[in-house]
Amino acid sequence: MEGTINKLFEGHTYNYIECINIDYKSTRRESYMDIQLDVKGCKNIYDSFDKYTETEMLDGQNQYHAEQHGLQDARKGVSFDDFPPVLQLQLKRFEYDFQRDMMVKVVCVCVWGVVVCVWECVGGVVLRVWGGVWHIDIPLLRLGWGGVFFMGVSGV
Q1: What pLDDT was estimated at residue 133?
Q2: 122 CB contacts (<8 Å, ≥6 apart)?
Q3: Phi/psi zone of residue 27: left (φ > 0), alpha (ψ -120 to 50 degrees), beta?
Q4: Residue 81 and residue 83: Cα distance in Å, rounded?
């Protein structure tokens, strides 16, 4: 029974920073138990995963300090290494409004199908097929204070 939770819910990502003008790359493997996906500006789960894996440019005032190379233009991003048998997705339905100094609910329409092909979602590049198709098993909506949407997804 020991390690059952990790075997069911733990997946891994690689966070990376890759310099553009020199041959330098920093990577770090991290584990996760759930994935927090944006819903604002995303019409479906694929858009949410694309936004999650978007590459950020580090340039100008925001350059990356590469060891022994000084400040460098770089790309920063995340890619999935593996997915767990049960994937929990937390939809970020609230965001902080700096003008009002409070959390506000994101109002949008996001269509989620019953079957999710996870391999289509990994940064637009098919690196590996992780079980191919995932079925949404447990849509669970908690309303009220701090309302958070959790969705259990399991691989076939």
Answers
A1: 44
A2: 49, 53, 79, 80
A3: beta
A4: 7
- Domains in the chain, please, with CATH? 4-155 (3.90.70.10)
Element (H, E) at 143: none
Q: What is the Cα 22 distance to its own chain's centre?
A: 28
User: Tokens representing 140?
Assistant: 């669970």
* Cβ pair 149, 101 in contact under 8 A: no
pLDDT (tens digit per residue) in 82-125: 888 777 877 787 788 899 999 887 766 555 554 444 443 344 34
Q: What is the pLDDT of residues 38-87, one digit of tens each?
A: 878 887 777 888 899 999 999 999 999 998 899 999 999 999 888 887 77
CB neighbours of residue 114 within 10 Å: 8
Write the pLDDT tens digit of every residue in 4-43: 999 988 999 999 999 999 999 999 999 999 888 887 888 7
Q: How many CA atoms lie within 13 A of 8 on its CB side?
A: 8
The residue behind tokens 């604002």 is 40
Give one word for 60, left, alpha or beta, with left for phi > 0 and alpha for psi -120 to 50.
left
**Closest C-alpha to 151, from 118, 122, 119:** 118
The separation between the first and the last C-alpha atoms of the chain, rounded to the nearest angstrom, is 22
